[in-house]
Amino acid sequence: MAVYSYTRVSTTAQAEEGESLGAQQRRVEGYAMQHDLTIDRHFVERGVSGSVPLDQRPEGKTLLAILKPGDAIITPKLDRMFRSALNALGVLEGLKQQGISLHMIDLGGDVTGNGISKLVFTILSAVAEAERDRIRERIADVKRDQKTRGRFLGGSRPFGWQIAADGSLEPLESERKALLAMRRMQKAGKSLRAIATAMQERGFAISHQGVKKALARVGEAA
């Protein structure tokens, strides 16, 4: 069993002054003494923002790479190691499955194997779900804004449009004429498959489902 400590400061100024790191390390060492643990190696992350995931930080990446079952990590606070509850939950699940204990002093100790583990995981799971909801909402807001401004959101290129250099959609004349022809056929009572066949004969690679989507977009625009 090896015991490692992990501390972090966000700015280079904090790292150079050493006050924040010193306080963290004293707290970690005090905790280790109380629990009869000997720290084999200190991992000190200097000038790295908490927004960077643990496995993408220089020291964090090294720490995760050397861990073995039965090892232990001590960190003073949740926010020294993780950028969010969602990030923490993912790493904690992995550590727990590998039999590696993580002692978070601010959460009362070992959050992977003792009595408070279930409580911590329950709380983190609830907060992580709220974070997922906020992420989904932000993505939906961005997509709505992009759609309002005529930006292409990925996937298949809409029939009748081409993607401009700035990512916006602009009319593709040849296909716009085909769309008008499809609408005339639709109004004349032609089936989607019949319209698709007619378009294919004119050299357009479009299925009956593609015709349905294209006509739906034209209807929305109208």
Question: Mind explaining what this structure looks like?
Answer:
By secondary structure, the chain is of the alpha/beta class. The protein has nine helices and seven strands; from the N terminus they run E-H-H-E-H-E-H-H-E-E-H-E-E-H-H-H. The strands form two sheets. Strands 2-1-3-4-5 form a five-stranded mixed beta sheet, with helices on both faces. The longest helix is centred in the middle third of the chain and has 32 residues, at 117-148. The chain is elongated, with a radius of gyration of 28 Å.
Largest sheet: 5 strands, mixed
> Would you tell me the structural class of the helices and strands?
alpha/beta
Order of H and E elements: EHHEHEHHEEHEEHHH
Estimate the global geometry from the Cα principal axes.
elongated
- Please list the strands of the largest sheet in the order they lie side by side: 2-1-3-4-5
List the helices and strands and how they pair.
Elements lengths: L2 E6 L3 H6 L1 H16 L6 E5 L12 H9 L5 E4 L2 H4 L3 H14 L2 E4 L4 E2 L6 H32 L12 E3 L5 E3 L1 H15 L4 H10 L6 H14 L1
Parallel strand pairs: 1-2, 1-3, 3-4
Antiparallel strand pairs: 4-5, 6-7
Helix pairs in contact: 5-6, 7-8, 8-9
Provide a brief overview of the structure.
The chain contains nine helices and seven strands. The chain has 222 residues and is of the alpha/beta class. A five-stranded mixed sheet has the order 2-1-3-4-5, sandwiched between helices. A two-stranded antiparallel sheet has the order 6-7.
